[in-house]
Specification:
Blueprint: H1 10-40, H2 55-71, H3 76-100, H4 110-144, H5 152-168, H6 172-197, H7 209-239, H8 249-260, H9 269-297
Helix pairs in contact: 1-2, 1-3, 1-4, 1-9, 3-4, 4-5, 4-6, 6-7, 7-8, 7-9
Length: about 300
């Protein structure tokens, strides 16, 4: 069970979540670039080798060819998108918890925390889907060497020009399929680990920095363990040429499994897991610090 000493404030969750999101992008973007490049690299022709042999190879080649800047490619879109997205994500979780409480000090069960987390996944998809589409397109154009978009805004303009708002929101259903169960897992596992690491008789507010980092990092790993298959399908679908998959994700799934087997649904697994721990540890640490600051600043909000 989760102990909530302070009444839940979705508004404070909103601001603290935004700050957590900024911390997450800075800590995790380089490995996100590698993940997308590994997931979307073309199948080699007979006799040719893959562009990247794996996570480390992709890291080395990106660094050699493009320097540190290459690892932070396309970061403007996630910073602009992630800050409000995490604000909305933590707001959704706070609201989901509040809606299930009969009194402000009710302690929620783990299934209730999972449900609150799933609500946050629904909230974030509206912001997440276009941001992810733009980010994936910018990340892969850098590795293919064919420069089609000058930057995030140019990408939005071109997509809108080609197929209207639908072009920008391509892959929304897959983003929902990925984020709703994964967000439930994310928040539930974080609360569970916080409970596990809190010494008897102490409150969550007294958790040490290493404990918060560990709980946040592990929550990120639990989140991605659920999210990866849908994420691979989403990256493929969002970066495919128009009309390639007329039946949406079913076509992507069939093609992937037929050509590369079920294991291909876990492409980029190492890069994702390597990124998930530090990025989410940074996110929750940022969130908890911002939350403490807001509780001190406005205790009754």
């Amino acid at each position: 069970m989760s102990k909530q000493p302070q009444p839940i404030s979705p508004l404070k969750n909103f601001f603290a979540g935004g700050f957590g999101g900024v911390c997450l992008v800075f800590a995790g973007h380089p490995l996100d670039t590698i993940k997308v490049r590994l997931q979307t690299q073309p199948k080699p022709k007979p006799g040719e080798r893959l562009i990247y042999a794996g996570t480390l190879d992709c890291f080395k080649k990106t660094l050699a060819k493009e320097g540190m800047k290459g690892l932070y490619k396309g970061m403007a879109a996630p910073i602009i998108g992630v800050t409000p997205m995490f604000a909305v994500c933590f707001f959704g979780f706070g609201l989901g918890k509040k809606l299930q409480q009969k009194t402000p000090h009710d302690i929620l069960t783990y299934p209730q925390l999972f449900a609150a987390g799933m609500l946050s996944g629904v909230f974030t998809t509206a912001i997440m889907a276009p941001g992810e589409r733009i980010k994936c397109l910018l990340q892969i154009q850098a590795s293919t060497g064919e420069v089609k978009y000058a930057g995030p805004m140019d990408c939005v303009k071109q997509l809108y020009g080609q197929s209207g708002i639908r072009g920008i929101y391509k892959g929304t259903a897959l983003t929902l399929m990925r984020d709703v169960p994964a967000s439930g897992m994310y928040f539930m596992s974080y609360e569970w680990l916080k409970n596990l690491l809190t010494p008897a008789g102490k409150s969550h507010n007294e958790l040490s920095v290493p404990s918060i980092l560990f709980a946040g990092g592990m929550a990120g790993i639990c989140n991605w363990a659920v999210a990866i298959p849908a994420d691979v399908l989403k990256s493929r679908f969002q970066t495919a040429p128009e009309g390639k998959y007329p039946n949406g994700f079913r076509d992507v799934l069939r093609e992937l499994v037929r050509e590369e087997g079920v294991a291909s649904l876990y492409k980029g697994f190492n890069a994702v897991m390597l990124r998930a721990f530090p990025a989410n540890a940074a996110c929750f640490l940022g969130f908890e610090f911002a939350m403490k600051f807001l509780n001190w600043l406005a205790p009754n909000l």
